[in-house]
Structure formats: C-alpha cells, structure tokens
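Our preliminary data section would be incomplete without showing what the modeling component actually yields. Below, a chain of 153 amino acids is followed by its predicted structure, encoded as tokens that our downstream tools consume directly.
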Amino acid sequence: MILKKVLIPIILFLQFTSLRAQKYELQSISFEGNNEFSKSRLKDVIVSKESPMWFWKFLNSFSGLGAAPITFDSSKIPFDLAALKEYYRNNGYFESYFDYRYELDTSSLDAELIYVIGEGERSKFRSTFLFGLDQVPVLTYNSIWQNYLSASN
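Predicted structure:
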C-alpha cells in the first residue's frame, strides 16, 4: 500500500518531466487573415522568432558562425498577441481581433505557430466638433482653431 502511494507519484512525475524535456524547434510562423500588413512586417513586431535555415544551424554546430536553433516557447504567445494588437491599434484598426494555434510534430520535434487575425475595418475620421468653447474669448477660440487645423494637416 505504501509502495503504491510512493511509486505512483514518482512515475507520474518522471513521465511529466520527460514530456517537458522535449524541445520543439520553431520551424515557421505564419499569419492568416492579414491583408493590410505583410508577413515580414508582422514578424518584426512579435517577440517569437523562427529557427534559422539548416545551413546556418550547420555552421553553428561546429563554429561560432551561423545561428542556433530556436525552440518553441508558448509563454511568448501572450506577448506576441499584445504586440500585434498594439501595432494594429496604432495603425487605426481598433476593432481587430487575434487568436493563435500551434501544431507540434512529435516525430521530427518541429513546431509551427499560426496567428489568426481579424483586421476589421480601418477607422477614419470624417469630421470633428469642438464643444464647450462658447465662453472662451474670440482670440483664444481662433488660436485653438488655428492650432487644430495646422495639426490635422
């Protein structure tokens, strides 16, 4: 009885740690639904990066040249989503939404990260109204209006 209570948690722990020890190489990052911005521009915005091509990994394996493989890290995904949301908002897409999925190939230990983007429509301003300036002196009102017009051009 005591043996079962001790062995079962140990076995489960070992299985869990062996699954966690597998590192998947991030082979590709793709975007679905992005019509306004290029894939390369969106890749510059996010934190996650793709693993380099085989030639650069080969050079890195025996010299200081090239680049090491990059492993898939799911903890970077929330930062990527926040960066994408901020980028789209800064460019006038206030009603965009973002989702993700990833595919893990257990035979080759490769990972593919896919971001799904719903851009929505870009916001545009047609007209502006200034309220609450009835009690402001005429010279101040004209100065505010001139500053507004020069800033909008």
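Residues 19 and 149 are 62 Å apart (CA to CA). The mean pLDDT is 83. Preliminary results of this kind motivate Aim 1 of the renewal.
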